[in-house]
Amino acid sequence: MKNKIMILGLLVVMGCASLIPLKVGPPQDITVEITPERLTRGEYLATTVTHCTACHSKVDPEYYSYPSVPGTDGMGGFPFDEAFGIVYGSNITPSALGNWTDGEIIQALTEGVNNKGAPLFPIMPYDRLSIMPEEEIYSLVAYIRSLKPISNKVGKKKLKFPLNYIERTFPKPWDPQPLPDSSDKVAYGKYLATIGSCIMCHTPINDKMEPLEGMDLAGGQDFYLPGLVVRSSNITPDSLTGIGNHSKDNFISVFKSFREPIKLTDGTNNTVMPWVAFAGMTEEDLGAIYEYLRTVKPVKNRVEKYPGDEVSNE
Ligand code: HEC
Ligand code: HEC
Questions:
Q1: Which of 46, 18, 223, 193 is nearest to 123 (CA)?
Q2: Which of 56, 69, 111, 234 could pair with 219 as two cysteines, CB 3.0-4.6 Å apart?
Q3: pLDDT tens readout for residues 71-125
Q4: Residues in contact with ligand 1 (CB, 6 Å cut-off)
Q5: Mutate to test the pocket of ligand 1, among 84, 91, 124, 166 (most ligand atoms within 8 A of CB)
Q6: Per-residue pLDDT, 1
Q7: How high is the pLDDT of residue 314?
Q8: Residue nearest to atom 23 of ligand 2 (CA)
Q9: Are residues 69 and 58 in contact, defined by beta-carbon separation less than 8 angstroms?
Q10: Which is more confidently placed, 15 or 133?
Q11: How far apart (Å, rounded) are the C-alpha atoms in residues 175 and 190?
């Protein structure tokens, strides 16, 4: 009896939850013109700083930083299998998005809602892409429209309770901000560090996934890879525990050193940081990110990159 009441209660809660209205309006009625400028900019953004192709392609786990396999751009299928359940990188080639309108693609990128009006799980970085101005988003749309069509049916997402309902509360309206002038290194670097998710991955979070106050970019967020935990580094200017002692040239050359994917020799210590994609950024852009990182508050926080048995996924 008690069980029946509980099940009934749960059904009521579930019924109501699916009625939670989304906080976003309908997709825009818009056609994005595909121009050579947009294709060039879109490809640069998608394959480097916003690393769309790192999450939406086939990746090679035998190489450091899971580089995407050439020729598989946008085909999707990568399983993000974590404590919240399982979500697959979608197929974003024209085979899958062919019947989406440009407005629907824009809404997916900036507001986190698909063409059926359903929420996207925020592994898809729409909350960060949401600051991107119109022209930047149009460039991304132009680029993904130009991808080679690859037919690939990806798995179905399964979120654990209560995230499967809470997910509906995450989408919010696109909030485009003016593009900072690239000569304003700090502002432009902050823009890149936001849309590149540096800030998101390098700021520690609590169990509600909220960033810890006063710990911006201080590292220590755990990521789970098969049989391994990797922890994000402190990239504040603290000279002992952060990157305060790195010169700009040194910072840039560390990124550039991943241009050619590196085969793992021991098969274990891998990373979620998309180094290979970021290595494609221009020196100016990496330099701007460096200039921005110099301006954040130094935080003393020593991080063990591979904490080993100290933590477990359960
Ligand atoms: C950190 C990984 C990650 C990055 C980076 C990322 N995505 Fe996604 N994206 C996902 C996942 C996972 C989903 C599926 C979410 C779901 O099923 O709820 C998704 C969903 C989508 C969708 C919706 C597709 C559908 O069929 O519902 C589009 C479109 C998309 N992404 C495009 C992009 C573009 C363009 C970029 C770069 C600007 C990008 N993504 C960057 C992980 C990522
Ligand atoms: C998906 C999460 C993720 C994203 C996105 C990410 N990082 Fe990282 N980063 C990590 C993790 C985990 C490590 C530690 C393992 C390693 O070295 O790869 C790391 C390491 C680093 C290091 C090495 C620091 C040191 O000396 O030990 C630097 C520098 C860095 N990240 C900068 C950045 C910048 C700049 C960006 C944005 C352009 C960024 N990261 C985006 C997860 C991420």
A1: 223
A2: 234
A3: 999 999 999 988 889 999 999 999 999 999 999 999 999 999 999 999 999 999 9
A4: 46, 50-52, 55-56, 80, 87, 89-90, 92, 96, 105, 108-109, 114, 120-121, 123-125, 129, 140, 144, 157
A5: 124
A6: 46
A7: 40
A8: 233
A9: yes
A10: 133
A11: 16
